[in-house]
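Morning. Coffee machine broken again, so started the prediction first thing and wrote up yesterday's gels while waiting. Chain of 479 residues, entered below exactly as on the submission form.
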Amino acid sequence: MRFEISNVGPLRRAAVELRPLTVLIGPNNTGKSFLATIIYSSLSSSSHVARSPYVARAISYNAQAAASATAPFPDSDSVEVQGWLAEVLDTGKPPAYGDLPRPLRTVLATGLPQVLQALGQAVAAEFARAAGAELPELRLQKPRTNASVRITGQQVAWSLRLTVSGSGPEITVEPPDPSAAWQAVDHEFWRRLRLGLREGVLIGSTFITTILAELTRSCLGEYPLRAKYLPAARSGLMQSHKALAGSIVRRSSWAGIEDMQVPALTGVLTDFLSEMIEMDASSRGSFAGIADALEADLLAGSVRLTGDARAYPEVVYHSEQGDFPLGRTSSMISELAPVVLYLRHVLQRNDLLIIEEPEAHLHPAGQAKLAMHLVRLVNAGLRLVLTTHSEFFLQQLNNAIVASGVGPARSESAGLSPADTIEPDKVAAYLFKPTARGTEVESLTVDPAEGIPETSFGEVAEYLYDQSVQLEPSSLINA
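Came back before lunch.
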C-alpha cells in the first residue's frame, strides 16, 4: 500500500510504501509523527469499516438502485442469476468475470466506487479525530495551499484521494477494475458461496451483496486487520493515565450543572488511553511468547495487569525485589510496559503496530536488544512502522538485514538466529529532510550489504569529530 502526501502539517511532500517493517528517520519536529498519524488514521477504524461485509452489503443495495436506471435487476433476474451461478460453481471453478450476466456486472462495477467513497469519508473523519483538529487547520501553513493525501492499493489497483481546501475535504476515487478484483477473490469464498446457494441461505439479491462484500475484501487485502499506535508520550501516560481517567470521571458528575472543561487530547492519545483502560488480562495475543522473551531480556522482571477483570486494571512491575506500580519504576520499564502488554493481550498476526521512538529511555545495549525483538515480531507476522533517532537501534536493524544474505553459518556465528534476520525487500526506510518550504521525505535504498543508510546520523558524527579534533592540544599548538 502506498501513501502520497503533499502540503499536510509540516510535510511538503512524501511518498511512502508500507512494507512489513517501515522505518522513519530524521530530526525532531520534521513530521515523522504526523506521517505516522496519517497512516494510522487511514488503516485503523476506517479499515475495519471498509472491510466489514455488513457495510459493503448496505452500500451494495444503493449500488443496485443506482444501476437499475440503466440495467434493471428485478428479483426475477436475481433468482435466475442465482441459479445460473449455482450451476457454474458446481463445476468446481468460478466463472470468468466477462461471462457474468451484464446486470450483475453493472451492479458490481457501480458498488465498488461507492465502497471506496465510504472508505474515503471514514479516512477523512478519522484523520481529523486522530490529529485532534479540523482538516483545514492541518494544511501546510506557508504557503497556505490545498493539502492532499492519496492512498493506493497495489495488489489490486485502486486509489482514493483526500483533498483539503479551506472549505473542507473532497474525496475522489479511482475504482479498481472489477475483473481484477474478481480474480483476486479467495477460492475458499467460492466454496462457501456454492454451499450457501445449495442450501438456500442466499436468497434473491442477498447473494449479490455477498459477492460485493467479498470483492471489497479482495480490493482491500493489503489492509491490516487492525492498526494500533504507541505514542512517544507513553511513558508519562502509563504513569498518569489512571489519575487522568479518575479526574475526568469525578468531574463528569457536574456535567449539565456547571461548565465542565475536559482536557483536549488527540485521537492517537485517547485511543492509547482507552486501550490501556479496557485491556483484558484474560485475552491472549499472538505474540505473548515474544513478550515474555522481551521481558526476560530487557526488564529483569515482568509487567502484569492485576485486579478484578470488571475493575480498572492496574499495571504492576514484578521482580525479585517485589511488586511495584509503574510510578515507582524506571522510565525504561514504563516505556516498554505498553509494548509488552499489547503483545501479550491485544495484537494478532497481520495487525499493524506503530511505535514512536521504541528505543526511548533505553541504554544503547538495550536499544540493540529491542531492535532484535522487533525483527522477530515482523518475522512472526506483525507489521511495524517505527520512528527512531538512535544510531545504535538502526545499526542493529542493519545487521539483521545484512545477516539475511550471508547464510545461516555466518549469521549464527555473529549471534543471529534465522528469526533475527530480515530480507531487504521487507524493509522500507524514509529520511525526513526539513526545508524552508516544509519537510521533504526521501526514500532510502535498503542495501543488502549495508542495510539502511545512516545519512542523518553520519552528519552529526562528522561534526562532533571535527569539533573534537579542534579541541585537541596538538590542534592548539599547530594553530
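The radius of gyration is 26 Å. Going to sketch it on the whiteboard this afternoon.
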